[in-house]
Fold this protein.
Amino acid sequence: MLKIYGRANSINVRKVLWLCDEIGLSYTREDWGRGFRATSEPEFLALNPMGLVPVIDDEGFLLRESNAIVRYLASKYGYAEIYPNDLKQRAIIEQWMDWGAAEFVLPQRGAFLGGFIKVEPWTTPWFVEAAQKDFNRLMTLLDAHLKASGKAFVAGDAFTVADIPVGLVVNRWYTLELERPTLPSLAAYYDKLSQRPAYQTHGRNGAP
């Protein structure tokens, strides 16, 4: 059985948990990370020398990096409806997955780590303010994309794995105490995702 290493309140672990619940994949999970066993322990570093969650053990195959894990599991278990085999469709999906990770480093560190849970060294007021503004900027761009495309989801008419990392940062944006602009297309997207039971469990569950 698939084993997932990482605390359930980590946004990156939640990507993997959401995907597993979305496709009905059974797994076990072991808590590691903030508030639990330290990922600097030798036992964890043997799984992931980078010292970050999540990590999976799929029958002896170890894999780190949440987006890579989501893509691997969707591919292995044949869920082409959420991760199509068509090269161009996959490229668009992966484009949005990577955007949902790479572009949000500053907002995650400043608005969440610094402004919300007060983790040093991210609490400097100017940094928190800059991160909050950047979070709003990125969400405004996403709102514009959704409006222009006229599609229900970020990569098209149907839900795909692209919506997993993007949907979780959208939830974080709505959950944090920020001065947010009104973004109707983004709000509709958030409500659409919220109809999915797995998103209710691992996304819109009251936690940022």
The chain has a mean pLDDT of 95. Strands lie at 2-5, 27-30, 55-58, 61-64. The chain is about 50% helix and 10% strand.
